Each structure stands twice: as structure tokens, then as C-alpha cells.
């Protein structure tokens, strides 16, 4: 059984993630952490969640706190703390502001929970994953970000609707930045186990429209309802369950790669990774030429944003 901690638990994503995670059978304890002054809200969340447990037959010990010291002995710490983007902003516009929060948080967690797995949701997630890796001192396998898992789910749902098949029949991946330079892997997309490009209907697939819809999905939801919540919340729970259940699923998350993909590496970015109780292990890949070119561009972009942020963080210390 495991203790799962959510940082930023008073936020839109944090609150819903607490609900989805409480449904995972391996979770025995859940700690909700918010900023000082938010104690009443956190207490209310705990009471409200507890009410739902009776109906569901769930038995999770809930607690809340406002200090990172409370996170000690967590098995997984999920970080949703930080500012979200407003309509018209790019996720990378949040880079420095959120990196400052993550650097401080990661330093404390690295000292107090050296065996934990640290899961970043805060955007821009590829950059915050790299910042957490550097400042926590934890091993690369212990740190990952939501990355392009949510984008892959968005594409999966569009493909399933287009082909009028159940979503479970579709396997697809998007790699690279959780952002504009993301790269769809049509070569790794199957429907009912059959490669999508060997289906006669593939030629009519509005592939570019689909990927454009995925690229702009977060922005469109934020414009219409203020924040993305249900997609990220369910995606977070899938990953927590994969870790705690030692499931060895291959999911596309932001992870540190050395040179696993065509020799490209030394960056945190969305890649397929085998995920289990020990953490996250990127899977070496062989891609089509245009996919490699797209991935190189995406890596180049993320490396630059990450390097700029690291430099500013060091200068600010
Ligand atoms: N990676 C993804 O796919 C994905 C999906 C959704 C949201 N996000 C990101 O998650 C983050 C949270 O989104 P949200 O919609 O829940 O935002 P929100 O504003 O509703 O919540 C933000 C949370 O962070 C906390 N916070 C803000 N500044 C802080 C600071 N200086 N120190 C400590 N805590 C602080 C707030 O108290 C609150 O709990 C954003 O960065 C957003 O972009 C990422
Ligand atoms: O788009 C955002 O800013 C939130 C998140 O990254 C998302 O894709 O839902």
C-alpha cells in the first residue's frame, strides 16, 4: 500500500486528481498539500472526498498540510503547484515563474523523500521535469512529467471517433514537447492491432487537422471553461496506478533521455517509457525519417527553453 501526496491540491487539477487517485486500490494514504492560508479549503476537500468514499467503498486515509515537511515517506509526490496559462499565453511563457517554484520544492523533496517518485504536472512540463531532476538530486528514473501522455490520449480519441471504433482498439503516440512542436508517430499507430497506414481508409484521414486539434486542445478548453481538469486528472491517475501496480505499461511521458532515440538525448521530453514501481525507463526507438526530423526540432526547442530557465534560476540564487 502506498502514500500519495498532491502538491497544489487546492488548484483545479489538484482537486480533481485527488478524486481520481483515491479510486486506485493501492493507495492507502493521501496527503493534500496547499499553501499556508488554505487550511479551510483543504479540510473541506478531505471531508468532501471522505463522503464519496462511503458510496464507493473506498478506504483511504486522508490528511492535509501546508508544509513540504509533511510529504516525508511519500511513495509518489505529484506536483500540480504553479500558475496555469491564461488565454493567449503559451505554456513556455510560464517557464521561469513555475521553475522557481519547482526548484525550491524539488530541493526539499530530494532531501526529505529520497526514495519517492516525483511526478510533474506543472507547465511547461518538459522544462519543470528537467528543473526537478536537477534540483532534487533524485535519479532520472524517479522523475517524470505528464509529457505527451495527455496529447496521445487526445489523438487516440479523435482516431477512434473517425474510424468509429472503441478507443481501446486504438494505440497511438505523440512524442516531443507537450506543446506546439509535438510529433505524432503515425508509424506507431494501430487500430485493432493493424498499422493505421495499411488501412485503405488511411489516405482520407485528416491527419493534419487531427494533430492541429490536439496541439490547440488545451488552449481551446482554457478559453471556454478556464482550465483543463478531467483529461489531466484521469491521465494522472492512469500513471499513478501504473506505478503502484508495477504494471510495466509503456506510456508516453516526459523523461530524461541520454541517447535512446536515434542518438538524441540529454533532455527531458515526451518519449515512450516502461513504467513500474521502480520508476520510468525510456524505451529505445527507431522512427521514420520525418518523425526523427520533427523530434530533433522539438528537442532543440525544449533544450533552449530549459537552458535559458536554468541560467536564470542560477542567476537568481
Ligand atoms: N502537463 C499537463 O498536461 C497539464 C494539464 C493541466 C494543467 N497543467 C498545469 O498544472 C498547473 C496547475 O494548473 P491548475 O489549472 O490546477 O491551476 P490552479 O491555479 O487552479 O492551481 C494552481 C495551484 O498551484 C498553487 N500555487 C500557485 N503558486 C504557487 C507557489 N508560488 N507556491 C506553491 N504553490 C503555488 C496554488 O495554490 C494552486 O493550488 C499549471 O501549471 C498548469 O499549466 C498541466
Ligand atoms: O493547455 C494547458 O495549458 C493545460 C495542459 O497543458 C493541457 O494540455 O491540458
UniProtKB/TrEMBL annotation:
Domain Lactate/malate dehydrogenase C-terminal: 148-310
Transmembrane helix among keywords: no
Described function: Catalyzes the reversible oxidation of malate to oxaloacetate.
EC code: 1.1.1.37
Keyword entries, A-Z: NAD, Oxidoreductase, Tricarboxylic acid cycle
Name of the featured protein: malate dehydrogenase
Domain Lactate/malate dehydrogenase N-terminal: 3-145
Gene3D superfamilies per record: Lactate dehydrogenase/glycoside hydrolase, family 4, C-terminal, NAD(P)-binding Rossmann-like Domain
Family indicated by similarity: Belongs to the LDH/MDH superfamily.
Reaction(s) catalysed (UniProt annotation): (S)-malate + NAD(+) = oxaloacetate + NADH + H(+)
Keyword NAD: yes
